Amino acid sequence: MAITEFGKAVRKARVDTSHTLKTMASELNTSAAFLSGMETGRKKISKEWVEKINNFFNKQGHPIPKLSDLADVSNESVSLSGLSHQQQMLVAGFASSPFKPEELKKFAAFLESITKDKSAER
């Protein structure tokens, strides 16, 4: 099975921090096979594991941006829990949209610019 984008990000972070699957698994009290399964998409990635992996790499001084989003894509699901009705409708609308990839890239760039503007306001 091909490695997922989540797996690529985690694998790169492991290499960058000089960890193997075995050493990371040992520190997280799990098996290397379990971590490998998450990297390759054979195992679903729970929010708890995203948090554990995020904490692991944050402690290494090597945060992984948008790890939760990468896990959602790897799992092929996005939780709507906790989102407003408007946000839920946007997610559902984009999921079933007829937009072409280049049009979606424009939306993504627009949303990123809004996020940067909001960050600059703070």
Would you give an account of this structure?
With 122 residues, the chain is mostly helical. 67% of the residues lie in helices and 0% in strands.
Please describe the topology of this protein.
Blueprint: H1 5-16, H2 21-27, H3 32-40, H4 47-59, H5 67-75, H6 85-95, H7 101-121
What would the keywords be for this entry?
122 residues, mainly alpha, 434 Repressor (Amino-terminal Domain), 2 domains, 67% helix, globular
User: How large a portion of the residues is in β-strands, by DSSP E?
Assistant: under 5%
- CATH topology label of the largest domain: 434 Repressor (Amino-terminal Domain)
CATH homology superfamily of the largest domain:
lambda repressor-like DNA-binding domains
Taking all Cα atoms into account, the compactness measure Rg is 17 Å
Shape, principal axes of CA atoms: globular
CATH architecture of the largest domain: Orthogonal Bundle
Fraction of residues in helices?
A: 55-70%
Brief account:
By secondary structure, the protein is mostly helical. It folds into two domains: 5-75, lambda repressor-like DNA-binding domains (434 Repressor (Amino-terminal Domain)), CATH 1.10.260; 85-121, no CATH class.
